[in-house]
Amino acid sequence: MIYSVRGTCIHTELSACAMAVVECGGVGYRVQTSLSSLQQIKKGSEITLYTYLSVREDAMELFGFVSKAELATFKMLIGINGVGPKVAIAMLSALTSEQIAMSVASNDYKTLTRANGVGPKLAQRIVLELKDKIKGMEVDTSDSVSMGTVIADTGNISKAVGALAVLGFSSADVTPVLSKLDPTLPVEMLVQQTLRMLK
């Protein structure tokens, strides 16, 4: 419903949750966000937050993030049974989108338990459900040709494709970018550089 809000940040708060107030056309929008997004927001500066409007019987809450990747991760997380917006925000405050994607791609549920409200059982469910969502999206990168370049069949490239799929990017989106990167780089660096180039 509300894709993004752009305006001047007139207030930030870190109490029970991270929050910023963005003034757009004379209206101040209270936007709940992650700690990592809040750290990039300066009071008095003009900002753009990519948003998700949560509508319940008793409340309407606006959640916003500095990057589209963080918003995509948030939407994926709240689509999982037992993960509400508050838990998803807690996860994105404890871990970056890349770290969550890497945890899912490598079946590392223990890393996800760093977030408040995420126990081992919920972490295992998150890994299992997100892994199922990306199974059909992974490709054999040895056959991928983009811009005349063949991507070498390396484990790191395949893992990067899987991790980026968790963030909502299709293999068709990321293959041209990955083909330009050094396949010997660590997976997390491949993911970070790809996200930078896709912006």
Description:
The protein is α+β, with helices and mostly antiparallel strands and 199 residues long. It is 44% helix and 23% strand. The strands form two sheets. It has a five-stranded mixed β-barrel. Strands 6-7 form a two-stranded antiparallel ribbon.
Write a compact overview of the structure shown.
By secondary structure, the chain is an alpha+beta fold. The chain is globular and about 50 Å long.
Features:
3 domains, 199 residues, OB fold (Dihydrolipoamide Acetyltransferase, E2P), five-stranded mixed barrel, single chain, 7 strands, DNA polymerase, domain 1, 44% helix, two-stranded antiparallel ribbon, alpha+beta
Q: Find the structural class using helix and strand composition.
A: alpha+beta
Domain count: the total is: 3
The CATH H-level homologous superfamily of the largest domain: 5' to 3' exonuclease, C-terminal subdomain
Number of discrete helical segments: 9
What Rg, in angstroms, do the CA atoms define?
A: 18 Å
Helix content: 40-55%
Q: Give the termini distance in whole angstroms.
A: 22 Å
Identify the overall geometry.
globular
Total beta strand runs: 7
Task: Return residue spans where pLDDT drops below 50 for at least 5 consecutive residues.
Answer: 136-153
Order of SSEs, N→C?
A: EEEHEEHHHHHEEHHH
- Tell me the strand order in the biggest sheet: 1-2-3-5-4
Q: How would you characterize the largest beta sheet?
A: 5 strands, mixed, barrel
- What is the CATH architecture term of the largest domain? Orthogonal Bundle
CATH class of the largest domain: Mainly Alpha
Instruction: Tell me the strand percentage band.
Output: 15-25%
CATH topology of the largest domain: DNA polymerase, domain 1
Q: What is the overall pLDDT average?
A: 83
